[in-house]
Amino acid sequence: MTKIRIATPADAQTIALLGRITFTETFGYLFEAKEDLRTYLNKTFSVEKILGGLKKTHNIFYIAFVNDLPVGYAKLKLNSASKLAPSTSSAQLQKIYVLTDFLEKKIGLELQNKLIKKAIDEKCDTIWLSVLEENERAIGFYKKNDFEEIGKHEFTIGRYSFNFIAMQKKLELS
């Protein structure tokens, strides 16, 4: 049975661990220099960093469980305009990470739907995200869920530069 709930600061360790594992499962192969990957994981998925993010009022984290086992999480950042998505009432879907063994259960879709509902509840008119240009599975997932490409940008981790596609979805406010 799948259960998804809003995360609290008490979930920081679980989210940090899920982040490290899922990032490595998804992107670890891109790093020949494993020390660059370790440095990024230590910086981005430290318990302190996750705890800080959980305490910010404009961040909303959800955590997913299957039979009480934590298997994924997602992060929404409210009021997150960018050059590519300049609306002041825009939300950013910053992360949806699910353990590889649980991808077939469509937990990513459930997490996405929670984020979109929360963005609408918070009166956001758009939701946007960035996805690695070569991550065809994710790009297909977002296109299937009515996200459209709005631009491209680069992101550097250690000695590696990656190309990302920014995508956006207009939200229907009630």
Description:
By secondary structure, the chain is of the alpha+beta class. It has a single domain (2-125), classed as Gcn5-related N-acetyltransferase (GNAT) (Aminopeptidase, 3-Layer(aba) Sandwich). The chain contains 5 helices and 7 strands. The chain has helices at 12-27, 34-44, 47-55, 107-121, 136-144; strands at 2-6, 59-66, 69-77, 90-98, 126-132, 148-157, 160-170. A 7-stranded mixed beta sheet has the order 1-2-3-4-5-7-6, sandwiched between helices. Helix 1 (12-27) packs antiparallel against helix 2. The protein is globular and about 45 Å long. The chain starts with a strand and ends with a strand. The model has no long low-confidence stretch (mean pLDDT 93).
Approximate helicity band? 25-40%
Radius of gyration: 16 Å
Sheet having the most strands: 7 strands, mixed
The CATH homologous superfamily is termed Gcn5-related N-acetyltransferase (GNAT)
Strand content: 25-35%
Low-confidence stretches are none
The beta-strand count equals: 7
Overall pLDDT: 93
Oligomeric state as shown: single chain
Instruction: Output the CATH topology.
Output: Aminopeptidase
Order of strands, main sheet, comes to 1-2-3-4-5-7-6
| Highest-level CATH class | Alpha Beta
Outline? globular
Q: Which structural class is indicated by helix and strand composition? A: alpha+beta
Q: How many angstroms separate the termini?
A: 31 Å
How many domain modules?
Answer: 1
